[in-house]
Each structure stands twice: as structure tokens, then as C-alpha cells.
Design a protein that fits this description.
Radius of gyration: 21 Å
Order of helices and strands: HHHHHHHEEEEEEEEHEEHHHH
Structural class: alpha+beta
Number of helices: 12
Distance between the termini: 34 Å
Strand content: 15-25%
Number of strands: 10
CATH superfamily of the largest domain: Butyryl-CoA Dehydrogenase, subunit A, domain 3
Shape: globular
Strand order of the largest sheet: 1-4-5-8
Number of domains: 3
Length: about 375
Amino acid sequence: MPFTAEHDALRETVRDFVSKELRPHAEEWEAAEHFPNSVFERMGELGLLGLRYPEKYGGQGGDYFTAIVLAEEMARCRSGGVGMAITVQAEMATPPIFKWGTEAQKQKYLVPAINGTKIAALGITEPDAGSDVANIRTRAERVNGHWRINGSKLYITNGVRCDYILLVCRTGKQEDGAHGITLFLVDKELPGFTVSRKLKKLGMFSSDTAELSFNDVEVGDDAVLGEVGQGFYNLMWELQGERLIGSAGAIAGAEVAFEETLQWCKQREAFGRPIGAFQVNRHKLVDMYTDITVAKNFVYNVAEKWNREEYPVSEISMTKLVVGRVTSTVADTCLQLFGGFGYMAEAGISRYFRDSRLIRIGAGTDEVMKEIIAKTSLGL
């Protein structure tokens, strides 16, 4: 196993925090479709938002498996949106800042994200550009020594509450496709940066998801992250980490759902005995247990390569594809085993059923993963 005694100690700390400070509020936050910003602040205080970042920026200096531990344990809070919002902060919006940011950018954006006093978002998807990232239309034009940004972004996690956004913009011609895309760090407080609307979703209720508008938002050269025109390539690197950590959290969620279903099958009786005593149900449980174990170990195998700073694009795509298939099967099977109660809104398993569907869409659909695998591994 890739986990050391230090990882085990971290897991115990995070599990205790989740159990005492997050899980008791799950029902309230789901009903409100919101959780308080104080969760970010509290996790910053505990050092949980900078597990992999150097101590000089307020981080803990850990390896990639510290992030895996956090993703797995956040799955136990019974509110998938909380874990997703935290993952966007710690493992999606901020890694590019650490990798390509100037020292001034790290101090302004990375440090407060690690201590939880600023909330970050990542702006990629647009109304006409989801999986087709190279087709984005939000544009940043050079005007009088500044950059002027116009456009919109859609389905942005943390978009309502964020203090800043890592924004993907076109700085070249539309026909240039993947070329001529640049990353910008844009403060929410700037004139012209508005939240068009908060979006309602199938699942992940407690996380805020927004449509954002940019109308003549002006930023300086100090807002450019990395090199002008290299944003697409930087983003492709970010997406590998996003897909991998998302897969780790998703398969952990499947494991939690399985554990709760196993207990239900031991306690719930029908026809004079526990429903887990029926062979058909026992075999369903065995199938889920096996699939989860195999998928989780594949996540760990690929995570070890990412931890060594390898770039296993095809294997990360396989990981996300496999995890998506397993979580969908687990969600459906668990709900079936819970029967009528599982279909009720009050049942945690119905929430998992809704939340689990996102992994097959977010950060690249199943179909996109298959295209990547076909190109990188099969030469098709």
C-alpha cells in the first residue's frame, strides 16, 4: 500500500474532523444548498487546504497521497458538494498557481487559499464550449497596456462565493483553436465581473455552481498566469490532476455507500431473515466490493506515477472511465438494495445516487476519456 504511518495519522485527523464538524451539518447544508465559508477557514486553520504545498506558503509539504487521504475522508461527510468545493480549492484552482505563478501571485492568491481566507474557482466551461476546451470564446484583448476581458463561464464550482477565479481566456484568434489561450487570475471585486445566476443541479446540492459574466473587466500583466498563449497546455496538465483526484474522491464515495448498504443488508429483514442472507443480494454485495477494491487500487497505482511527477495521460483517463462505471453501478445497486426507503429524499443513499453521477461528466466526459485512450494508447 502507498500509505505510510504519517498518512495514517493524517487520515485519523481528517476523519475525526469530518465526523465532528462536517457530517452533523450535512442535512442542513443540503437543504440550504449552501455551506458556510467558515468551513474553508477552519480547514485552513487545520492545514488541510495546503497538504501538498511547501511550508513557506503555509502548506504541510506532503506528497500526493496526502491529497488522496483528504479526498477519501471528505467522502464521509455525507454531502458530496462540500468535498467537491474543497477539492476545487486545494487540487484544481491552486496547483497551476504554484506551478506557473510568480512569487507575487503565490503570495496574493496561493497563500490565502491555503489558509482559507480566500476562496478560489476555476473558469473553463462556457455555454458553447464544454469538452471542446479549444473552442472557448471568452476573450482577453490588449488595450492601452492592459487586458480587457469579455465573455461568460458556466457550471463554475465556487463561482458564487469565490474571491478570485483562475480564468481561461482566448488571447489569439478563434481559428487558432488550442493556440492563443492564456490563463488569468481575476479578482471577483473588479468592475464588470458578475455572477449572472446561481445554478440548480441534480446533485452536489451544498456546493454553489454559477454562471459568470465578464463585461470589460480590466486586468494588468500581473494577472497573466504563466506565458501568454500557453494556457491550453497548462490547462491540460491541470486537468490530469483534476481527473485523478476526482476519481479518488468518487471511488471513496462508492466505498462509503457500499459500507452503509452492507450494514443495511445485515439489519433489514424480509421473509424472516436479513436481506443480506439471500444469495442474490450477497452476490450483489460481493460484486460491488470487488469492483470498488479493483478500481481503488488502480487509482493508487496511477497516483504513484503522478506522485513521481510522471504524466500518465492515458492511464488517468482509464482511471476516470473505470471509476465512473463502478460508481454508477454501485449507486444503482445500493439504491435497489435499500428499496423504497432508498428512493426517499431523506435517505443518504438517494443523495449518493444523485451526487455520484457527476464523475462521468465533470473534467471530461466518458466519451472524451475514450477518445484520449484511443489516441494515446491505441494509435487510433
